[in-house]
Amino acid sequence: MPNHEQRILIIACVVVGVDSANYSLILPVLPTVLIELGVEGMSEAAVTGGLLVAAFAVFQLLFSPLLGACVDRYGRKPMLIGALVVLALDHLVLVFAETVWVLFIARFLAGIGLAAGIAVSAMVADVTAPADRARRFALLAAAAGIGFAMAPGVSGLIAQFGSRAPFVVAAGVTTILLFVTYLTLNETLPKTSRQRIELRRCLPFVQFKNIDISSQTKKLLIMLFAFEMTVASFVLVWPYFTPYAFGWNVQMVGLSLSLVGIGMIVTHVVGLPLFQKVASDGLVLILSMTLAALTLFLLSSTSATEIALALIVVLALCSISDPLIYGFLSSSVPLERQGELQGLCSTVGAIAALLSPLIFPPLFGWSTDGTRDFPGMALILGAAFAAFGAVWAFFLDFGKKQ
Hints:
By secondary structure, the protein is mainly α. It has 2 domains: 1-187, Growth Hormone, Chain: A (Up-down Bundle); 211-402, Growth Hormone, Chain: A (Up-down Bundle), CATH 1.20.1250. The protein has helices at 4-26, 30-36, 41-74, 76-96, 100-112, 115-126, 133-158, 165-184, 206-210, 215-246, 250-278, 281-301, 305-317, 321-331, 338-367, 377-394. The chain is globular. The two termini are 30 Å apart. The relative contact order is 0.15.
């Protein structure tokens, strides 16, 4: 029988895995659902789908600071339970939606549901020593990778029973997780450590100026932004870059992304402990961002499928930066501020999610518009963000090996 700390880690991994799966579960069926709701043609569906992604990013940006503050004020478990309820409702709205505008309401609910990830990250930090947090966050990242890699295939199988069937399954899984969480988890934040909510800490953008966190934490948040933009340059451009550069079909693109997902899982579960035995976390972070910059640059200019597949496996190794950054961030603030910190991290992710679709796909379109033929330009910009992250990490004070 697992102890409470082990139960927290298990539930946290399941929550982030389900949350990641919920995101990628929608992707294969979203065009069909949009067309069923009256959107005309795949091109318009792509535009509408992009607006839905942007809407979620906006809600993420607006809600993250407040949700983080609520996690520190009302406790981890109540906010996690509430977020799972909202996520279950989100899936039911998707099941019964009869107009496109209702889908935007679902994105609003999904934005509130972000509290689930914020709460479980804070819970893991509560019960983990600072020296072990990078390893624990690596497990969370691996769980997210499993969810993201498996969900599209599962969604495709379930969709044969109807385009909304994946949403029904997602609602059911989330509801089961809700009851398991309620029955098995205890609160990890003592009432004596609760923080009152201050409006100045809950305003997007303004929070970075008003919040009393260390300069090191702020520098690490910039590091996180560089990493998020690096990832976005690949994720947003790859489905367009590969058909253009290599002539890949949809199946091949999906296979390559699954390969990346599998590589991320292996990296987080097996690679991080091995790297930590031979080098400090700070050095591993610098090397991984440097390798990401080099890999994206090489991807931008290769014309061979075999080389591209080999390079994306290497790129998956670079995802080790994610848990390292979160580990450093978590260690930079006290336990009673972990929820607020996770809200800040979510805000940084939302900013990247808003900016990246406005930068990388248009840059790809501009560089392949007929007068220019350089599809890898957007990947080179991603390499520049990674190189900036490597240089930025070099000047950070990580202290002794964790």
